[in-house]
Amino acid sequence: MLIFGGTWFPGALLILQCTSAVVDVEVTLTTADETHLFQRMPGIVPQHVGGHGIACSDDVAVVEVDARQRFQTMLGFGATLAASSAYVISKAPQSVQDAVLERLFGPESGGGIGLNMLRLPIGVTEASVNYTLGHMSYDDHSYDWSLSRFTTSADEDYYVPVIQKILKINPHVRFVASPWTAPLWLKTDSSSLGSGTLLEEEGAYLAYADYLVRYLEDYLSKGIRISYLTLQNEPGHGGCGPMPCMILTPKQEVNLAQHVRVRLQRSIAKHTKLLAYDHNWGFSDFESFIQWCVLLILIVPQFLLICIVCHCFRPNINGHLPTVYSRVIVMGEDGGALLGDACLQQETSMREVKAAGQLPHDDSGHRARCCCGSSCAMAAARIICIADALFFFSLQWATHNYPTFLPGYLGQFPMGPAYPLEVLNSTAGQAFAGVAWHCYGGDASAMSEVASRYPELEQHITECSYVPRSFSDYLPYSQTALFMAGVRNHAKSVMFWNLAADEDAGPRCSGGSCCSICKGVVTVPSDVKAAGDLHYNAEFYALAHHSAFLDAGSQHIFSAVSGTGIDAVAYRRSDAQVVLVATNTRNSSNVTLQVDASGVRFQYCLPPGSVATFRWRSYYRPGNQLLTEPSTAPVRTFYVYRAMSDSSFPPEDVNSANIHGVMWYLHNEVVFQAPRKFDITRILRYRVSYKAPEVLFRKGTNFGIRYAFDSGKCTGPGYCPKQFNKYGYFAGCNYVWQYPTQQFTDAINYTNATWFSFPGACSDRDFRSHDAQCVLTDPGGACFGIPTGEGDCTYSYERAGEIRLDDLVGIRDYDQFVLLGGREFDRSLDTGVNLTFWDNKTDTAKNEVRVAKALAAFEQKYPLSEHLQDVACDFDRQRFESP
């Protein structure tokens, strides 16, 4: 559809473009009914009035996109290359191998989806091919503390060759390595892949740290550079049966990290960064359900038991029960519960009835729970018997299969954010570059909880698989719960579970916690003959809508949805293209998507459960390619000040100063008039972060010429757009007594008085003539968060307080002061009248006192504000004006 000149044309894929400029918006669509699978649709352009499209719904959701609000830089998207993934790919004919790897890792221009993140297991996983001794780890030889028999040579058969083929297609793939279990001889249960934890002895930690680093070094020698290492896959997962796993508590992870860090520092693999945790955002729904069930089974029967005992045995005030006819619950040694009709006759105390550890035993040694058998409470007693049996059975089953969730629920084994926060708060916290997460419990907001406390650390989603779900359910759900929620909560990468599997979701282990329905991103049938036999699953298309469109340096940018039925996330590529991924979360109705992206407006109708990627180029196209890339200049953070009336204007397209500069301005331009010039009443303070664009920084300076602005228009010196096109939207500065205001010679009496200029949007126009077009083509340098130094993202700012001039100089009522003949400063007298604050304008010492009083006023009003040093003005006219 199109809004053109303010009119909607239903039934077409068109754009709102109220200006003369034309914007082509590319559209790629996947529908839940699989009629469109990652298919390029007709672009959205104004001349397509009456063109073909999808009929719109009355349900409308608006997505606002702002490429100037930038957040984390994305690293990419991918999956885990388990041994089974490499195996099924390697067994396919060569033509099929080439086809599937090109499709997965090749660039969009060649028909690929550009995956660039791979998780590599260190040793055996639930998706391995061989579980025999010698294939479970890289050193299955018992008690080889020196790792003299460590080898990764088995991976040379098919695993490493597949990785090397991937690197030939995409040399920029990053790898995350994770162990599922330590070698058995380093575990407390040396007979089981699926249980136990690391031996609690220093030698075990030393050997395991060496083991992990040896793996990194061996793989580096094969040309595979591991970017990240996690110390344990799902450290809270134990009791896995045949599935490999190992408990690793936060304390153990801290200890192991310290040893790994020391070992890495002297390793050729020192570039590898550590990621903490590598487990769920929180407890899974199933685990939470079991926790509540067990707790209820534990608590409720005890209340019922007390009530029934009191009712049935009130005559037995001595606390002993006479002959009790009871239904019997026989607890087998294997945790199984048998309900029997046999009756026991015995003398049993009430205390024994309630104490699980003192239950009577039958002749076979099984524990028996005796329940009240009198007719008055037989029904209730049976409930107690069954409930108690369920409790004992559930407790034993849960403890065996999920050994961490009950302690975790009671605060003894932290899960979700609590685990990484405990690790990061420890003495080993600095060893970690970030946190790895899985999607199987909790939600993505857990990452923000950690990021809020450690904003410098990276967040990565290293595993996820939503099963069992149909294609139509999987596609929108994975977008909303994983990709969009994940990226909005600081994830720099998102990875699914297995990259490839056969038609039986294998090869894999079976039983226990092994997953028999965890499909790969692509299914490679065991009898595959040609590329047409491959089946690309919902995971493939979910990834493709993000991975195919981002390049190195792409950033997550601001997006917000108004209305229902749509979820979305947006990115800005390094070449200034904007990418928006949107999904219709409804399963049976269309939703009209309206996009407003800083002047680029269009509408599109999304079918139920569908996902669409929109891509368009930013209007900002500087003359120098360097201005489309982040600069290498340092970020400088400092305060600037503006003398203002009670009206508020941002520090864009106006002049500001350091504290000395604003005090000079007040002294020389404002306070000698009554009322004050421009009705100025206050000093506003802004906290500014500035990063010079690369072109200017390479000239050896951070700041350019300080331009003057009149009514928002840059008036020079010189032609401002020419220099902004050359250097980007740089901040300018000058010492007030130097060029271009060298006439203000007495400003030297305010030490280092400095003025600044920060170009905003439409800097070549008076603010009264600003419109959407100039915002697009002349965006200015202001952005949000930490500036990147790209040509249109050189500075950000936030209000940092204000002080009233009357309070500073000691005037209670300004109007009354003037009415009674008062003057703040009289130039002819070099003093004030009925006020001494501004006396002696050329006295440097007194000027310093005035500045100090202003700073003290801010300090008193905002005692918790940062203490920031003035930034030095390094503008060099000769360098700036050189070719």
UniProtKB/TrEMBL annotation:
Stored Gene3D superfamilies: Glycosidases, Golgi alpha-mannosidase II
Species name: Polarella glacialis
Protein name: Glucosylceramidase
Ranges for domain Glycosyl hydrolase family 30 beta sandwich: 553-614
Signal sequence, start to end: 1-21
Family per similarity comment: Belongs to the glycosyl hydrolase 30 family.
Alphabetical list of SUPFAM superfamilies matching this protein: (Trans)glycosidases
Hydrolase among keywords: yes
Gene Ontology biological-process annotations: glucosylceramide catabolic process
Keywords: Hydrolase, Signal
Domain Glycosyl hydrolase family 30 TIM-barrel, residue spans: 76-281
A GO term, aspect molecular function: glucosylceramidase activity
Any Pfam family hit: Glyco_hydro_30
GO cellular component terms attached to this protein's record: membrane
